Amino acid sequence: MGMREIVVAPNPSHTELFAADELARYLERMIDEEIRIVKNPSKRGEGRIYIGSAAPIEDPSLIREVNSLGEEGFLIRGKDGKLFIVGGGDRGTLYGAYHLLWMLGARWYFPSPDGEYIPSLQTLDLEGLEVREEPEFTRRGIVIHRSNTAFMSWLNFAPKVKLNTISLHSLDGIEEMEDLTEDSGLQFGLKIHFYEEVISLDQREIDRNRRRTRALLEILPEGISELHLWPADDVLKPAPGQERYPIQDLALAFTNEMAGFLREIKRDYRMAFLAYWSTWAVPRGIRPAEGVFLEMAPIHRSFSHPIDAPFGTRNGDSVGHIVEELLEVFDPAEAQVLGYWLDSSLFGRSR
Question: Using CA of residue 292, residue 333, residue 246, residue 284, what is the dihedral sign?
Fold first, then answer.
């Protein structure tokens, strides 16, 4: 089945068009022949790939199965001389396009043109192909500064390896993110150390931080509803007079206060409680309020042992059982993990 046309719907989304463009670009490199993107297929085409919403238009029998997919799931099916690639949502369609290329031998090893391998093929024989895939993890992304020289490379690389989120680690560039992610359909967000290292539940301090938070919301894109506004990247301390409370309890109580304030503004707002460094412990007397979810960042974990290593190892003594106990306090279905790559975040400080 030689594929020479990629068919898109009459009114394709940005991400569907991007998926078609990417698929055509890489297939042309593989077979050294032109691949056309069309809305109205020719009558004598050797074979066609129907992508995104064009697939169920051409074959209505796909509709029920497509509707059963999650937003990022996808279906690839070769049938009657045609190939269908369609996702439960636009990102799913894009992942399906990249997955087909992966099945044909394409590889993306790291975010750089030098990090990809595209094979040369004599023909494309995709008849009878049948793939259905959905992600096991709902959140898969990176945290990066917009000023990072590799930022655009990561933006390009992320959907190829089925990441779905790119979060900035400072406010610089946040106003660009909606446009930068329009084609790929990536979610974008903000993960910053916003509050101070002294945690206070004094009403004057709560009110002051509410004002700071409201001012921040005024400059954030409307699409951001999951907020990762962390305390300072330092050893956290209780405010004078509040030393009797464990710091993780104070931090969670403060997060609850801010989450309640945010949800008064917009019910969709959710806020992360960061279990990290000072707060890497299980809250004793405080429980998360509505809209508060867990983000675990075990920066001290050992990469030499599994998380559930036995006692007597770093992970066994101070990581694995804390993870399990935190997941008894917070909803496991909403919990996130902030891991550390081999970069300065992990090795640039004496921890």
Answer: positive
